[in-house]
Amino acid sequence: MFQLSNEGKTKVLSKMKRYETKESAIIPALYIAQKENGGWVSDEVVLHLSQLMDIPAVRINEVFKFYTMFNQAPVGKHHVQVCCNISCALNGGRELAGHICKELKIGFNEVTDDERFSVSKVECLGSCSTAPMMQVNDKYHENLTPESAMNILRGLK
Amino acid sequence: MEIKLLSEHYSNPKFCELAGYEAFGGYKVLKTALTMQPQQIIDEVKASGLRGRGGAGFPTGVKWGFLPKNGEPRYLLCNADEGEPGTCKDRVMMEKAPHQLIEGMIISGFAVGSKKGYIYVRGEYFHVIAILEQAILEAYKAGFLGKNILGTGVDFDLDVYSGAGAYICGEETALISSLEGKKGQPKLKPPFPAVQGYLRKPTIVNNVETLAAVVPILRDGAAAYKKYGTEKSAGTKFFSLSGNIVKPGNYEVPLAYPLKDMIYKLGGGLRPGRKLKAVIPGGSSAPVLTAAEAEVATLDYECMAGMGTMLGSGAIIVIDDSQCMVDMLAVLTHFYSHESCGQCTPCREGTGWLNKIVHSILEGRGRLQDIDLLVKVADNMKGRTICALSDAAALPVLSFVTKFRDEFEFYVREGRSKVKGASHAQMHH
Fold it and tell me: B63 at the A interface (CB within 8 A)?
């Protein structure tokens, strides 16, 4: 059964006090739990948060399923999100996404066998004047070429 | 020519820290503002002609005036959910000058009688959230935030809230739903947020650039601000220039700046050997302009409206002659069908249909009548939903199909793009 660490629990409880209503802490709590659960949110995670926050699981699920930054399936240690919206598409973003998949030998929304990488195509990330770009976990990488993107990914631990 | 009322010191890395911001006169305007009557500030903002810089272009002072004139608690929310494809200006403003936004929010909060504000930032901007949290901490330590600001008896608390990846949360009532810990679904208006918003309390939602602009307006006065632009489009505005352009970037220029100067002077023009085909002038929801229209357009609300499009968020997306318009429209229809929140039928079903029809053309399965079907579906999506996303999805379709109909017809007839060598990486797998 998934359990947040003590530190994670403390963080969630402090978020519940930080905002006017405890429901406003659902999004922050999902971020905290997703991080501790290896990058995705499982049913167990939702149940645990439901008990910890005393909010019905269905209420947490409603939020969890609505927002794309919460992953509903396992992702790699380095989750690579490549923008394929218009400004990036005009500058080779879709080709970049395809190239990364080919190099990592996976399809979109798949995880490499060693569980190090997963790749998905995403909508505009606000990096339009520095296209094409990818986000790896929390970090933006901009003005990429297929080569520079792979160099960045190969350099990750 | 650029006029840097907001961005004058953006190149200085120290400007994002409190000491650096104060070294260039930061928080001086706040000190003066707190000696004024709140109504004086509202009047000055009204007189400046400042219009919402997020996309809708509604006069800021007028929006503030919709708040009830009683002492009821109210909230000031900053919309930093920058998500309109092509737009990356708010991000740069928060990275380079978080204190400018904070100062603008304290002044605006004082003007509208709010003691609590939030900056709702799109979740992907992790680094921006860290910068804002650090800056807010500095502002508290310096006595610019919290109780009894600078001994004036004015209180204002400010916090940051992270979204989690939903374009629709840039719509103000969806943003409020999200901040309340719900799905980011828009609410029917009226009641407008100014009457019943966050937690059903009166609420003002303003864009990052709008709130930051309050600082130079009060610093130089409304008259000085109005020297730039036109009567209906006053002041300066940030434009995010992207697409097929030599020098993409964020540029602050006076409103009514010629679009062709933005592309050819500031933007360095097109890449060698390329010709301009089209420009999306105000983010992906704005109807596209042909190259000929772009040559004569000026970047102000009235010129854009006159050309059947909009200034929107100020995201200028340049498309050159190597691009296929069917392919580009497919990128946009995919986006809107992905981002529809699903509560209104015309939008939920319509965005899906638009996307399926455009992709069937792109995959060589299109029929000539599909082009008219696109127009029919898009027409039926306009003005029939709770929020503007449905219109935002319909407008690009109508403009692409109308202005570049030959490319769509060619694609249907030949099963391939009229543009030789145009890429067609598929969005679906």
Answer: no
- Structure tokens, B364: 């060589």
B423 vs A95, A127, A139: nearest CB = A95
Nearest residue to B217 via CA among B357, B79, B347, B53:
B53
What tokens does B2 get?
Answer: 């650029």
Q: What is the pLDDT of residues B366-402, one digit of tens each?
A: 999 999 999 999 999 999 999 999 999 999 999 999 9
Sort out which chain A residues have CB atoms less than 8 A from B170's CB and list them.
Answer: none
Three-state SS at B216: helix
Q: Which CATH number fits domain B236-320: 3.10.20.600, 3.40.1380.10, 3.20.20.70, 1.10.3720.10?
A: 3.10.20.600
User: Hey, which residues does B249 pair with through a beta bridge?
Assistant: B241
Please write the tens of the pLDDT for every residue from A120-136: 999 999 999 999 999 99
Distance from CA of A67 to the nearest CA of B (A): 5
pLDDT of residue B340: 97
Q: Count the Cβ atoms, other than its own, within 10 Å of residue B60.
A: 26
Alpha-carbon span B50 to B417, nearest angstrom: 43
Q: Which residues of chain B make contact with A86, given a CB cutoff of 8 A?
A: 85-86, 243, 280, 284, 317, 328, 331-332, 335
Tokens standing for residue B266: 């500031």
Looking at the domain covering A78-154, what would its CATH class be? Answer: alpha beta
pLDDT tens digit sequence for A9-39: 999 999 999 999 999 999 999 999 999 999 9
Which of B183, B284, B425 has its CB closest to that of A66?
Answer: B183
pTM over 0.90, yes/no: yes
Strands B276-280 and B315-320: antiparallel
How far does A139 lie from chain B, in Å, by closest CA?
A: 8
Q: For residue B429, name the pLDDT band (cuts at 50, 70, 90).
A: very low
> CATH assignment of B325-414?
1.20.1440.230
CB A108 within 8 A of CB A82: no
For residue B216, the distance in angstroms to the closest alpha carbon of chain A comes to: 25
